[in-house]
Amino acid sequence: MPSEGMKKLSSVFFVAFVLMSCSSSEGPLSFTDNTGPIETNLVGALQEGQDPSRVPEIQRNFLTGCVMGATDRMPDLVAVQETGLLEVCGCSYLKLVEKVRTEAAAAAEGLISSSDIEREAYKRFKKLDEDFQATEGNFDEDLKEIFASCIRQSPT
């Protein structure tokens, strides 16, 4: 019988990149573009101290897709809150952004500006979604580990 942690991991895996297709719209071009308010039920997925009225579009889309996609599989909102899903989705977003920023900086080898590195990181983030869509939902091991580490860190 699968553990509760594995059930959470499966739910997050199932929806995590469906949500990224929403975050890959043509609108924003960076991780900070198009700030606006996030839905009240998603505030728990934000970093401590982050202003819920000024959340970048890509982060809003990611968190909305992650939480709402999992909610479709676990319709009881109380159950979603109890599973730590908000924290897992928030953590996953931050770790994915950190991963693509680190990769972009390493590839740049100090030869381009920080704004160029940020644009490259954003492109890499979008490419994660494109690759996921192209492989019909298969996750590479690095991505599985990101989600799994966030689940291990979640309070439940």
Task: Walk me through the structure.
By secondary structure, this protein is mainly alpha-helical. It has one domain. Helix content is 65%, strand content 0%.
Proportion in helices: 55-70%
The helix-strand sequence is: HHHHHH
Question: Which blocks of ≥5 consecutive residues have pLDDT under 50?
Answer: 21-25
Radius of gyration, in Å, reads 15 Å
- The first-to-last residue Cα distance is 18 Å
What's the pLDDT, averaged over the residues?
76
Task: Note the total helix count.
Answer: 6
Total E-strand runs: 0
Q: Which structural category fits the helices and strands?
A: mainly alpha
Beta-strand portion reads under 5%
- Based on Cα principal axes, name the global outline: globular
Number of domains: 1
How does the major sheet shape up? none
Key terms:
0% strand; globular
Topology:
Layout: H1 4-23, H2 57-73, H3 77-82, H4 85-108, H5 114-134, H6 141-153
Helix pairs in contact: 1-2, 1-5, 1-6, 2-4, 4-5, 4-6
Concise structural overview:
The chain has helices spanning 4-23, 57-73, 77-82, 85-108, 114-134, 141-153. The chain is mostly helical. The radius of gyration is 15 Å and the shape is globular.
